[in-house]
Amino acid sequence: MKISFAEKASPKSGAVVVGVEEGKKLTPSAQELEKASGGALSRAMKASSFTGKKGQSLQIAAPANVAADRIVLVGLGKGLTDLDFQSMGGNLVPALNAAGDKEAVVYVDGGADVLAEAAANIGAGLLMRSYRFDRYRTKETADQKPTLKKATIVVSGAAAARKAFKPLEAVAEGVNLTRDLVSEPPNVLHPESFAEEAAKLAEIGITVEILNEKKMEKLGMHSLLGVGLGSARESRLVVMHWNGAASNSRPVAFVGKGVTFDTGGISLKPGPGMEDMKWDMGGAGVVTGLMKALALRKAKVNVIGVLGLVENMPDGAAQRPGDIVTSMSGQTIEIHNTDAEGRLVLADALWYTQDKYKPRLMIDLATLTGAIIIALGHEYAGFFSNDDDISAMLSAAGEATGEKVWRLPLAEAYDNQLKTDGADMKNIGGRAAGSITAAQFLQRFVNKVPWAHLDIAGVTWSSKDAPTVPKGATAFGVRLLDKFVADNYEK
């Protein structure tokens, strides 16, 4: 969708969107339409339950003396936040598509100090909600496709709004890249092709290095490589560098689990629902989208993004329960369940990242455990950390972006569940506290670097629409971590 900003506009067709404050108080732009329409707005509100509360909307067929096809009243309520304005923009998309509108003019009124940010956030909401993964739909009729192609946001100080929109647009592009990656079928997106997609980020200034299996074997990454033994696809480790600060500034590192399809391996998953396991690479998808967002908005920080890319398949060469592998760290792992594979991938990716790049901190993201869904449902991501400051910053970024996170504990008692007689550790800790023991496993490979682990299994895919997130791949984590970086690590 094309988003533009203007000081004024004269719509000839499509929809005109104006705000109404709580108590049916018309904003200046709504008052102009009220006058031009001969009181049509007041009559429509009187005949409906619309009062101007936040989240309400009312559509009116435009009278003959109004050039547009439709007038949309949007409730402003009281005390709107940036997220509220994003939701406002997002909610317009399905409404205008349902009406068949091709373009819309959105008028933004209010205090001069909030106009630019409000307009920018409405634009961001429009952009994020208009995302659609439809490249494999070949038989859609015209009336099944979205119609809205253009939105002009009219605001006093359009130049300031345009400037405020630019970084939000960059983040939205990162979000939509993540959604694309997570939505791709596993016959299209596999470790090699994912690495190729990441390599395209070189076009926007990101340096990309790809390690093949031979290089990982030489480094001793047998924990990661063991997961991909049963696949016809070679595993990959991708390292992306964004250098937006001085060369002597230590980087912030993000590490993503990228299991492009997860059958469970020899510990085979049940058949029903296995098709969803195409998005077991969600953590790697988020890291890739985040890197794009940071590069597009020229973030003043050095960042490392690492992707551990594997496919977990069962064949005669596949890893077995009972196998023992030696990780890059030298620690040995006894495999008790080949479906607890994401932590095996992250073990080597985390160790490699902290050992080679000496980051200020590391954050990993993974669709790691079903247990986190039992604990938190689909509303919050669970996270674990060895650092209280990072935890506080993540929680604050979650509240600010609406991508909320909830901290869970780490403790020696949970760590003891990983003990085994045959090796330094086993890769599962039993049914009790499954998300926590998974995090305890990962902590053994961070080597005291300030670190957080985000388990995003419950929030990577959605079966329903939200204001700025159409159902499907959510890209949960891109906005969260962009905000985390912007607020705490950019100069």
From TrEMBL:
Cofactor(s) this protein cannot do without: Mn(2+)
Protein's UniProt name: Probable cytosol aminopeptidase
Encoding gene, per UniProt annotation: pepA
GO molecular function: manganese ion binding; metalloaminopeptidase activity
Native source species: Hwanghaeella grinnelliae
Gene Ontology BP, a term: proteolysis
Domain Cytosol aminopeptidase: 337-344
Catalytic residues of the enzyme: K269, R343
Cofactor note: Binds 2 manganese ions per subunit.
The reaction(s) this protein catalyses: Release of an N-terminal amino acid, Xaa-|-Yaa-, in which Xaa is preferably Leu, but may be other amino acids including Pro although not Arg or Lys, and Yaa may be Pro. Amino acid amides and methyl esters are also readily hydrolyzed, but rates on arylamides are exceedingly low; Release of an N-terminal amino acid, preferentially leucine, but not glutamic or aspartic acids
Residues binding Mn(2+) 2: K257, D262, D280, E341
Annotated InterPro entries: Leucine_aapep/pepB (IPR011356), Macro_dom-like (IPR043472), Peptidase_M17_C (IPR000819), Peptidase_M17_leu_NH2_pept (IPR023042), Peptidase_M17_N (IPR008283)
Family affiliation: Belongs to the peptidase M17 family.
Enzyme class: hydrolase
Residues the entry annotates as binding Mn(2+) 1: D262, D339, E341
General function of this protein: Presumably involved in the processing and regular turnover of intracellular proteins. Catalyzes the removal of unsubstituted N-terminal amino acids from various peptides.
E.C. number: 3.4.11.1, 3.4.11.10
Entry keyword set: Aminopeptidase, Cytoplasm, Hydrolase, Manganese, Metal-binding, Protease
Compartments, record wording: Cytoplasm
One Gene Ontology term, aspect cellular component: cytoplasm
